[in-house]
Hints:
Blueprint: H1 3-16, H2 22-29, H3 33-45, E1 51-53, E2 59-61, H4 75-90, H5 96-108, H6 112-122, H7 134-149, E3 151-157, E4 166-178, E5 181-188, E6 193-198, E7 202-211, H8 220-230, E8 240-247, H9 249-257, H10 261-264, E9 265-268, E10 272-278, H11 279-291, E11 297-301, H12 303-321
Antiparallel strand pairs: 1-2, 3-4, 3-7, 4-5, 5-6, 8-10, 8-11, 9-10
Helix pairs in contact: 1-3, 2-3, 4-5, 11-12
Amino acid sequence: MSKADNMLAMLWLLKSRRRMTAKQLSEELGVHIRTVYRCIDALCMSGVPVVSEIGRDGGYSIPEHIKLEPLFFEADEQRALLHAAAFAREAGYPSEEPLNRAVSKIKRYTNSEQLERLERHESSIEAIHPPTASSLTRILHEIEAGIDRQSSLEIDYATGYDVITQPRILDPYGLVHWKSKWYAVGHCHLRGEIRCFRVDRMRDIRHTDNAFDRPASFSPREYVLDSLLSEQGSESNPHLVSVHIQGLPQALDDLCAHWLLSQALVERTAEHAVFRLDEHMLYTQVAYYLLSFGGKIRIIGPEELKSGMIDIAESLLKYYQS
């Protein structure tokens, strides 16, 4: 039997009988006594309150007041877990090995008909993400370790596409997966405030002895969304510009589904959409995205945006003609 099977068997033996020695467990299960010791240690580490008593009448036991309810998953719960595991793998989930072990345990305790159905469900939903580099997986593991220990990390960070890096000290509060990228969120000692760091721009990472306390109610996910959307600005922002776009309904659907533009949508009809966008972001980011729609959309206003897109198109033409 596997280690997991041995642990489960010992668990129920100890619960069904008052006390058993290591030798009795060894003989009952047909395993070496060292295997019994290892499994007992593993049970204790997993939170099972195994009591060890020495002496003539000693042995291992589980207190009578402890209830060990078997954990069973219904068919739709099993399917949901398998689908969630598929999404996690494709997102570059750093703990794929223990995830696969957990999925194997779900499959292990099923009959042939249930197993066939599970494997059919497992292949029925798939996600496509860019492949995650092995070096990124290693860094994600290191960040997770820092989060778990609540210890600061020293990282070499590239702020852009340059190869030059800058050392930073980070108190990691959490990891967020956003638009196929991993972000580490935490307190930056250099800036003296909470910052968001792209994990793929970390060139090296080292643990330190400095301990920190994570804010009790802090949500890395909410911080990432708030920081990204704060660039868009609020209604009181004097730099907001109204953008009127006409186009094919399908093209406008894709345009309005963009994570930023969906937050800035003011009015929508079948062939028209009006947005309120920060002026700086409009001309540095959004204008380039609008060009990707080609002739499927048309800028109605403002005139400055149309002129700006003409300048961008002309500069790209000159660049590729040179």
